[in-house]
Amino acid sequence: MKKELKCHVGIGGVVEGEALVANDNFSARYDLDRIKGIFSRPNHALAGQSYKDKILVFNTAKGGVASAWMLHEMTSRDMAPKAILFNTANTILAQGAALAGMAMCDRFVDGDVTQLIQTGDRVTVYPDEGRVVVKTTGA
Amino acid sequence: MKLSPKEQAMLDGELGPARQWAIQHQQQVGRMFDAEDMVEASQAHMMADPESIGEAGVALFERFGSLPEAERRVAIPMITDPRGVDLTCYEPLGQTEEMAGLERRFIAACQKLGILLTDTCINYQTIMPPVQGEHVAYGDTGVVIYCNSVCGARSNFEGGPSALAAGLTGRTPRYGLHLDRYRQATRRFVVRQQPRGLTDWGVLGAVIGRKSGSYWAIPVIEGIERVPNSDEIKHMGAAMASYGSTPLFHIVGITPECQTLSDVGGDKLAAEDITAAEIGEFRRPFGAKGEKVDVVVFAAPQLSLVEMQQVADLCRGKSIHKDTDLIVCTPPSVYSDAKRMGLIDGIESFGARVLQGTCFYQQYAREIGEANGWKRLLSNSTKIVNILGGYGYQPALASMEDCIASAVAGEIV
Question: pLDDT at residue A137 above 80?
């Protein structure tokens, strides 16, 4: 099944990948083991899971300014997600995506994006158009 | 986003590739946050420690640093947040040559860009505080919240790349806190228990930040009976920004944009109490009386000269426990003054280590913790106890007086 979600115009180019979704928040500094490419904070909803080449979907961004550099550093080692989608981004993550050339979108018109997309869905993100296409894998 | 002729020239590459990169970066960010145009900024302040920027970030600075002078110099005064390595003291902390080498390369590249290496997160106390209405491009959430709230300046949280872009172009996209409508209050809190001492102010900030919970939520606070001093409101703001991503707060009758509640639209909001019970509930997980303490940390924010004197006074005539360390982080400018005034010698004769130009959590906190066997950490900073839980520490919170007493006893008093 295929559906199309509208959101605010975002950052970066068109990417396609597999969704990894959590009704949780995101900070590159506090949540990740950036060398291994996994979520490392024990009480994060995705603890232990790999984020490499995934389309991550979260509620909002949190934490300090360091994440703005970290997305770039992660991308340079090919150990980064392809895109991050939020209900609400903050300035730091948007700035980080711009430096890294990573796709990022937020403010989805149809409601909570962590409910609209499921882990495992095939997702294509069109940041320039404010559009995300979701192919669900479930029954 | 509308561009002026000068901005268009930057975009077209006429002022070199660094400024072209910078304005392209600003265009992307500005578009995401609906900026209609750019606003000239008078200063930029950049957070960039080697742990965050990595090899890739240092390489970016070196690439810009190799350009001709006219193409690489920043366009406005640009200063730096704390560094990750105090090059006068890194081996004793267990930091490696690799970390120091990355730091040295970064510093050299910054100097080529004309960046002033102030290495401070309290520039509003030590360098040049902004004036009400002044548009700036500051990094470090503690710097931004203080300058917006207490000085009445206008800045978004500018992560390192955006602060660098602002330094190179001399402007920043006009969105968020540069606009009047985003500076109006969205939450209204009434304080029912008066804070006393730096840690109380930090805890109050943390509770309000956690309740506000978003970059786009602005609290207005009533019920504060005494005007806080700069160190107190610094701890309050730093904690609020850390727990809530909050970039601005107003205190009725105290902060400059809020002489009355209605100045920030607070009269239209329902009031919520901050009770003594909530404050107590917040503190509970950070209390651990009687437990051994491995390291006591005064940092986040870096200490002002006044705080350095307070620490020195508390240390006088006492010695640290043999199984406990004490780390104090202060900007290089304060360090020089404190050295001249005998405060550094006083603190060091207690057995503490005073670091210049770093801040504990930005200096490879995980690695230095492992190298020194630091796990149980005590601090008077509400901000740092929030952050370091994620770095493998068991943090506890106490007043500056109790922190020193605990360092003497080797356990939390």
Answer: no
